[in-house]
Specification:
Elements (H helix, E strand, L loop, with lengths): L9 H16 L4 E2 H19 L9 E3 L2 E3 L1 H10 L4 E7 L6 E7 L11 H14 L4 H10 L14 H4 L7 H16 L2 H12 L3 H7 L6 H10 L7
Antiparallel strand pairs: 1-5, 2-3, 4-5
Helix pairs in contact: 1-3, 2-4, 2-5
Length: about 230
């Protein structure tokens, strides 16, 4: 009987989807250490772009770089269902390593937000054929790992500080978005995209795009005018 996945926070759920997605993409080619480092890099890149991690993992500088006990917890919850791990002896006979496969009884299909998926796909493309030493070397060569000592906590905010958001500006942006969504412009734009999606990027680049008076009027109405004194 399939065990229930923890439903505590969206970030915890994303960790399950993220690991499952990477394992599916790198089926039979993914070692545990590599998986851990890929997730770390994804979290790091996501933080740089959004001011927060994709997962709730709390990393420390451990053996072979970034590590978190939360990683093993999520693996155990996916094991036998979405993923399958196999222990193998090293060629030189010193120790063993773990390799991951797609699981036999998935309870869900991995779904990632588009911006997160783009980051994940980029790292998979870069490192899918690379030896482990290249991945580790890259992780160690960039901040924050570059400046840390063994056992220290990895804090992205010390390297990539996020500027505080002015509450007044945040309120204005939220209200502007609400007003924009209440107009007909998003529906018109979505309809236009669907109609032209088959033209291809090259044809779209050559096509002169002109908005109708109705679209222009909706767009102007959706954008508040700020008077600065």
């Amino acid at each position: 009987m399939a065990q229930n996945l923890p439903v505590k926070e969206d970030m915890i759920e994303i960790a399950h989807h993220l690991i499952f997605y990477i394992v599916k993409e790198l089926h039979k080619k993914l070692m545990k250490t590599n998986l851990m480092k890929l997730i770390y890099l994804v979290d790091l890149e996501y933080y740089k772009k959004n001011g927060r991690q994709a997962t709730s993992f709390e990393y420390i500088y451990y053996k072979k770089g970034p590590w978190t006990s939360q990683f093993d917890q999520v693996l155990s919850e996916l094991e036998g269902f979405e993923i399958k791990s196999l222990r193998k002896e090293k060629v030189e006979g010193k120790g063993e390593y773990i390799i991951f496969f797609k699981g036999p009884k998935p309870r869900f299909q991995p779904t990632l937000p588009l911006d997160l998926k783009e980051i994940v796909d980029r790292f998979i493309y870069i490192f899918k054929e690379s030896p482990q030493k290249d991945l580790l070397q890259y992780v160690y060569s960039i901040e924050p790992m570059k400046s840390l000592k063994f056992g220290e906590k990895i804090d992205f905010s010390k390297v990539f500080p996020q500027l505080p958001v002015d509450p007044l500006i945040e309120e204005i942006v939220v209200e502007a978005n609400k007003e924009y969504e209440s107009t007909n412009f998003p529906k018109i734009l979505d309809s236009w995209v669907k109609e032209n999606s088959e033209m291809g990027i090259k044809n779209l680049a050559k096509k002169e795009i002109s908005l109708s008076e109705e679209v222009l009027q909706d767009r102007d109405n959706a954008q508040p005018t700020l008077l600065l004194s």
